[in-house]
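Need C-alpha cells for this chain, all 231 residues.
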Amino acid sequence: MEPLYLLIAAGAFALTRKKTAASPAAPTGGGGGAPPPPVPASQRVAIIKSLWQNQIPGLDYVRYALFIGQRESGSNYRPKHSGAIKKGYPLGMNDHGYAGMYQMGAAALETHKYIKAGTCARKGTGGNHQILTTLENWTDRCPGGIEQFMNTPEIQERAMLEMTIGNYRGLKRNGVVTDASAPKVKAGYLSAAHLKGVGGAIALSKGNATSDAYGTSTDVYYAGGSSSQLV
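Here are the C-alpha cells for all 231 residues:
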C-alpha cells in the first residue's frame, strides 16, 4: 500500500470525537469484552479501491474515507464505545445507536436499501438501536442484520461509498458544490454532510455551523475533510 495512505490510516488526520475490525468471533450483545483488532490498513484500502470508480470527479476518496473512519471510530469496523456498553448495546454501536466504522444510522441505511423501506417512519420501530438490532428490518443486502454489517468490512465500505455519493448529489442539487469544485471543498462539505446530513452542509455553506449530539461542529468536520485532500 502507498506510504501516504498508510500514514492517514494510522491517524495522520486524527481528530478524535468519540472513542467508540471485523471478525466473525467478535463479541456480540452487551458490548462487553475487548474490541477485535483493526483490519490491516492495506486490506481496508484495497476494499475501498475495489469499490471506487471515480464517482465524484477529482476527489481522492481513499484519503477521504480514511479520514472519516479515523474520526468516527479510530479506524475500527467494530469500535468499542463506553456509553453504549453501559446501555447493553452491541459492540460497534455508540450510545445513540450509530454503528460501525463510519457510525451509520438507520435512516442512512434505509436510504441505501440495507434497511427495509418505510421502517424508520413506521410507528413503534424506535430509534437507531432498536431498528438496527431487529433482524427483520434488514434487506437482502445484509440479511444477517447488525452482526453481519459490523463483521463485514466490504458491506460497511459499500454503504459508506453509497452514502457519500448520495450526499454529493444532494450538495450539487443545492449548489453547494459542482463537479468543478476543488477536491478540498468537496471533501470539506462531504465531511460536514457525514456529520449532520446534507442540510447541515448547506447551512454551513451559508455560514451557519451546527453540531451533533457530542458537540462536534460541522466546521470542524469541514476542516478535517478538507485537510484529507492534497489540492
